[in-house]
Amino acid sequence: MSKTIAFHLQKGGVGKTTISGTLACQSALGGEKTLVIDCDPQGNLSSWFLKSTPRFELSDVLQGRCFVSDAILPAPDVDNLFILPTFGIGGTLKNYSETKLSEEPFVIQDLVNDVSGDYSRIVLDLSPGLGRLERSALIASDEIITPMTPEVFSLDGLEIFIDELQKLKKNMRSAVRHSRIIINSYDERIRQHRDIYKVAESTGRFTVYRIPVDPLFRKAQEAGKAPQLFKVRGRGLKPATVEAIRELDKEIWI
Ligand SMILES: Nc1ncnc2c1ncn2[C@@H]1O[C@H](COP(=O)(O)OP(=O)(O)O)[C@@H](O)[C@H]1O
Ligand SMILES: [Mg+2]
To answer: CB of 185 closer than 6 A to ligand 1?
Structure first.
């Protein structure tokens, strides 16, 4: 059985793409055939992992212009990792989601069903916001995991997200799980970070994970590499970051 996870909070810059890409890599490096569907019209994840502009992208698949198998590409540097890409140029996914998607809320679900026989793990990277495309992707998932940064605004954002998700689940009769939070760019030395972690834990509703602040993520993205395989002057991710990624990989796919 395959499992589909969306990493989502409607806020930008909390690490959705970084965490989606990194955890998809970790899964693939562990030998699982893993697909990332880049549902963000800006295509950050695609430009991170792919070297050239592909012939087809997600919006072509959604509009029936090609088969899904024509659009999926292997990530050149990571065995078992595959990308169904989006490229921001031209804004075709954005146009599609603003015009045609309202009549087809289950397009992403249908797409996931189509590919779930070929991939044991599927990751959806979404853009900030809770528009039609994001909603369609959220109800196509088995689980939603929320990344947030250790700031008060993120806690506010989480509350709004929980509310909106409840409505969406009810309207769409969805049973998608939402029981894990990742506090990203966490620094144990900063009191506010520790406080935010405590608040998130004290809700009792979530298992709360932490990913340390680690400059190697951005450097690996700039170099178009998997963070786990990338080094700058002999140095890779911090040991605590590696440990956090391993722990998440062990737990989230169950
Ligand atoms: N744990 C981290 N430590 C340091 N920088 C990070 C970390 N996670 C993400 N970043 C950086 O923060 C920025 C925003 O992350 P991104 O994944 O693009 O967020 P989102 O997809 O939610 O908009 C990027 O430049 C990324 O490299
Ligand atoms: Mg992103």
So the answer is: yes
Beta bridge partners of 207: 180
The 3-state DSSP class for residue 127 equals coil
Nearest atom of ligand 1 to the alpha carbon of 14:
22
Domain carrying residue 78: 3-252
Please tell me the predicted confidence (pLDDT) of residue 134. Answer: 95
Count how many domains the chain has: 1
- CATH number of the domain bearing residue 240: 3.40.50.300
Residues 6 or more apart in contact with residue 156 via CB below 8 angstroms: none
Ordered DSSP codes for 35-59:
EEEEE-TT-HHHHHH-SS--S--HH
Q: How many A from CA of 114 to the centre of ligand 1?
A: 30
pTM score, whole prediction? 0.96
Q: pLDDT-based confidence at 104, cuts 50/70/90? A: confident
